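re: that chain from earlier
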Amino acid sequence: MKTSIHPEEFYRRIKGLQKRMALEKFDVIITFGDEAEPQYVRYFSDYWPSFETAGVFIPASGDATLLIGPESQTFASAWSKLKKIRRLKEYRESSEPEYPGEVLTTQAIARSTHRKIRKGELVQIKEHHAERYMLHGPCHGTGLMEGEHPWIEKDSDFVLQENMTFCVDNFLRTERYGLRWEDVVRITRDGVEEFTDRFQEVLVIK
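^ sequence. v structure.
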């Protein structure tokens, strides 16, 4: 039998803190937590952040809000006792993808004009509005860690240099299903070197 704390207990904790905030004349308190040190987030929300960090925004009065990273909505919605949840780029994972755009856009590299694509350009072909199923840019650096700077995204302006290594990270999701695969490539003088040629067959499931 699973044991859990009733949601009313978390609201009681928040109200108790708000009374103390009034005495101390605090306008707001924001707690912070990560996978290793989740206690200040979990105490007020029952949410244990994983992969990304999280916080709880507690105003002087009114409802508290759980603050999460761009990729944690489904997980947080399933576990948080707080109904108000807000995704913020500041709580993203440590390799810090930009999620460029006004509302944590899922779009990555895209062509802004109809000019001819030149050799060496990096583009992402958008077809059938597929960008709405994508969460982050199509490539992230890899070296000392599996995922690290730099990310190749819509607002990237750095120059690709020979021997840079990237994971071409394909991540598609809907409300019911998800699919993700990565291929590692090395930037060469005149293109890229693929580190694997497996799993590149297109399978159509009807």
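Confidence is low (pLDDT under 50) at residues 104-115, 121-128.
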